[in-house]
Structure formats: C-alpha cells, structure tokens
Design brief:
17% helix; alpha+beta
Length: 126
C-alpha cells in the first residue's frame, strides 16, 4: 500500500496535506480498501468552522457508512464536487482525485499531533 511521506495521518484513517494555512483532507488507501467500493460521499459542511475530531461528512460503501473526522480545526473552504458524480475516485486515487475537503486551518500546531507515514504504517500493522 501507498502512504506518501509528505502527508500526515490520523488514527481514524484520514490524511492531511498542508500548503501554507490550507489543508487538503481525504481518507487513506488503507481506509478505502477496508471500506470496499465507495458509492457515495456526503459533505454538507462547506463554509463551517469545525473543531479537531468533529464529523465533517460521511462516506458510504456497499456494506457500510463511516463518518469523516476533521484532523485539525478549521473552516471548510472547498469540497471535492467531483465526488458527487464519481465517488469511486476515492478507491482509484485516494491521495489525488479522491480528496474530500480543503480547509483554512485555525491552529497549525495541531499538525504536530498527527502521525507521519511510518507511525501510520505501524498503526495498521504494515
């Protein structure tokens, strides 16, 4: 499995990429493989300020629905509208086309609480 070294990871299997004060968030390759075929992504929190660990949406696979959690506090400034018509992008390209939201981070120091690729691999037994 692929776990890019430039990303940070959560125990809930989200990944975070930081550019300045904007964070892009999605789910990991491990998470999408565990969920199976993604059929729907629901994110109705655009424009909202959410705290770290708050639910920002849900992801639905053939057999289950899972919550999506904010890795860091911030305002959701963009959602990946392409997922509405092509939720399978999360399975096919979890780190590129399958991103979920972009946020304007309120507290970048929270990044320090997230895992690097090595720690995340240990978490999932890789």
């Amino acid at each position: 499995m692929n776990f890019p070294e430039n990303l940070k990871y959560t125990k809930e299997h989200e990944w975070v990429s930081i550019e300045g004060d904007v964070a892009t968030i999605g789910i990991t390759e491990f998470a999408q493989s565990e969920l199976g075929d993604i059929v729907f992504v629901e994110i109705e929190t655009e424009g909202e300020n959410l705290d770290q660990n708050e639910v920002f949406g849900t992801i639905e696979a053939v057999k289950t629905v899972s919550d999506l959690f904010m890795p860091i506090t911030g305002e959701i400034i963009a959602i990946n509208a392409d997922l509405e018509d092509a939720p399978e992008s999360v399975n096919e390209s979890p780190y590129e086309n399958g991103w979920m939201v972009k946020i304007k981070a309120s507290d970048l120091s929270q990044i320090d609480d997230l895992m690097d690729a090595s720690a995340y691999k240990s978490l999932i037994g890789q």
